[in-house]
Amino acid sequence: MFRHIAVCIFFILPTLGSAKLEKNVILISVDGLKRAYATDTHFMPNLTDLAKSGKGSQSASAAIPPRTIPNHTTMLNGLNPRTHGMLINDKEAANVTSNPSIFDILSSHFGESFEGAAVVAKKKLAYIVSSQGPQSAPLSIDGSFVREFIPIKRDNFVMRQIRNFTGVHPSEQTRDIALEKLADSIPNLLFIHFGNADLDGHWGVRFKATIVKSNGGWGGERQRNELRIIDRAIKAIVEQASVHDPGLEHTTFIITSDHGGHKNSHGGIENQDKSKLSIKVLEDVKQLTLDDFHPDDISIPWIIFGGESDSYRISDHIDQVDTAPTILDIFGLERPVAFEGQSAIVN
């Protein structure tokens, strides 16, 4: 039986008569995708082909700690977890940060000409897409899906929560909602989060060890099958974007992840000398380095193609914190002083 998911969409609609920006960025995060799998034809043949048409880093790294909330916050607001403070990996602890995200910055700079959207497969990520944050509200079941529009603090943002109660595969549902958003045009910034590869990596944590050995864990049968589904979904999203922008002349794709994994987990401290430190305590996190974690946990893909990327020279090493300033760079905006990352575009 497929697991339930929540998919949230935030969007800003330009008013009638406003001139829409001509540049678009589609940022796709595949939760739990370690770098080695992103360009392996056995896992993701379509993404492998897309990577050949673009550029990327062979040594991209997650932020510390390599977990979902900390890294997606970093991905969207250009600050390391030890600065933005979003360390706890659940929605109850994911209090809305006061630091502006790239959605906030682009909306503030371009005003009504900017259109942004996000599709996320884990409800807890709704707390970090915008510094304005969602307001909690109960879901109501409407037949096979939950579809309820919930206003949040900023008037021109809307959050839509969708939870699947049918046999529709969660990653295919995420794909379908993303395609729905791309049906008429391409938002200037579209963030798409696929969550199930991570869940399949964790498969076995709550089950017998024999299940882990047979088909669970990172690189296990369940995750391999999931990555193939996501791979086809990414291809469909690229094809739909190409309908509105043939050749992707004005649309840049960035495909990355929040963390990798090994066995059936990620984010644990491997350095025994620091084993008493906690990744949930800010002062402890400040003492940790990438070397204190398993290499597969911090290894992430970072692939860019479309738009003007053919003319880019990309940094040899990219940190998660570099994603947000890179996106602002594509839109021609200077890196905010508060940002800790640098644009991955070096020319």
Description:
The protein is an alpha/beta fold. It has helices spanning 35-38, 45-53, 68-77, 81-84, 102-110, 170-181, 196-201, 209-215, 221-244, 282-285, 295-298, 323-330, and strands spanning 6-11, 24-30, 55-56, 116-120, 145-151, 158-164, 189-194, 251-256, 302-306. A 9-stranded mixed sheet has the order 3-9-8-2-7-4-1-6-5. A hairpin with a 6-residue loop joins strand 5 and strand 6 (158-164). The longest helix has 24 residues, at 221-244.
Strands of the widest sheet, in order across it, are 3-9-8-2-7-4-1-6-5
Class of secondary structure makeup: alpha/beta
CATH class: Alpha Beta
Number of helices: 12
Radius of gyration: 19 Å
Quantity of strands, as a count: 9
CATH superfamily annotation = Alkaline Phosphatase, subunit A
Major β-sheet, in short? 9 strands, mixed
**N-to-C span:** 49 Å
- Overall pLDDT: 80
Please state roughly what percent of the residues sit in beta strands, choosing from under 5%, 5-15%, 15-25%, 25-35%, 35-45% or over 45%.
Answer: 5-15%
Low-pLDDT segments, ≥5 res: 1-6, 8-17, 134-166, 205-213
Task: Name its key features.
347 residues, alpha/beta, Alkaline Phosphatase, subunit A, globular, disordered N terminus
SSE inventory with pairings:
Elements: E1 6-11, E2 24-30, H1 35-38, H2 45-53, E3 55-56, H3 68-77, H4 81-84, H5 102-110, E4 116-120, E5 145-151, E6 158-164, H6 170-181, E7 189-194, H7 196-201, H8 209-215, H9 221-244, E8 251-256, H10 282-285, H11 295-298, E9 302-306, H12 323-330
Parallel strand pairs: 2-7, 2-8, 4-7
Antiparallel strand pairs: 1-4, 1-6, 3-9, 5-6, 8-9
Helix pairs in contact: 6-9
